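Weekly structure sync, notes
Attendees: PL (lead), two postdocs, one rotation student
Agenda item 3: pending single-chain targets
PL asked that the sequence for the first pending target be pasted directly into the notes so everyone works from the same version. It is reproduced below exactly as submitted, 332 residues in total.
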Amino acid sequence: MTKFFPFIFLFFVFFTSCTKKNENTTPQKNTTTGTSTTSTNCPTCSFPDTIYTNTVSSGPKLVLVFAIDSNQIRLNNLGQPTVVTTGNAAQSPSFNCISSHYVELAKSDSVAVGSGAVLYHAPETTCGGSNAIIFCQSVLVKNGQVFLTYPLNQIAAGSYKWLRVSLAYQNYDIVIKTNSTGPIIGTIGSFVGFNTYVTKYMMKNTVFTPTASGGPGNHLQGYWGFYTNYLSVNYMLDGQAPQTTVVNPLFATSPIPAGSCLATGLFVSTTNTSVSAPLIIPSNPTSDITVTVSLSSNKSFEWKEVNFDGLFQPDIGEQVVDMGIRGVLAKH
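Predicted structure, written out during the meeting:
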């Protein structure tokens, strides 16, 4: 059993040594557009909901569904196809759940962030000091589940080319190899929103209270928790390691705020995802429109190899270099 602890220590060291990728250095701007509410009070909720509740009582609506696709094209932060860097290896994590913080439709390449049709902006609080997402008021959904509905008659009619969605939290499993235990499954809870107020969260039905970076309270983008169970013993640790690819093909015309996880994806048809197919919002909608927000997990967990076997082994010095979603396609 004692052989496991060096692995835990090294895992902590290698995660906290990462650096963040972002193509823009503009300070984070937090708008109050859409459905966002900001409070000075500390939230009293315990854990996020795990099923989205439809809030559109009547009439046609836009329905957004998350889909995780490990075979979808792998992009860099500029929206260009990319492969795993020579000398690195990567795996496609198995996602347990995911949540969003912000959703916006943009009609053209030049529409600035916040100037499009903002459909959702998660509740925030200044309870912990600076403005932060309230984690316990998030909605964590699984692959293939609805994460947002919105009345079509409240969206300006027209043609929309781009979808912007800011991811707030990702929970997924990865395979880890160690000299002392062999391959094991570990779970990552990754807080990728610009800033999150979190006092506790769950990984594999085990409650964890933050200990790193000041403990419960505000945590900047990159706060993470790790959990595994070995020989019926729970092992948990956390740290602060900003590292994510945030895909934005509009980096030249519509840069995203620094520190955000505001990924940008093209509207495409379900039958041909390689060609733009703008979303048309009619003046007088008569039926629901469903959009599948497909997120690429294609080798999104990437590390620097030491033993070139394609297996992540932190106890021999293999270091994580990226953990970001590798692209967005809005299929309809």
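Discussion points:
- Residues 1-5, 16-33 have pLDDT under 50 and may be disordered.
- Residues 4-25+35-331 form one domain.
Action: rotation student to compare against the earlier draft before next sync.
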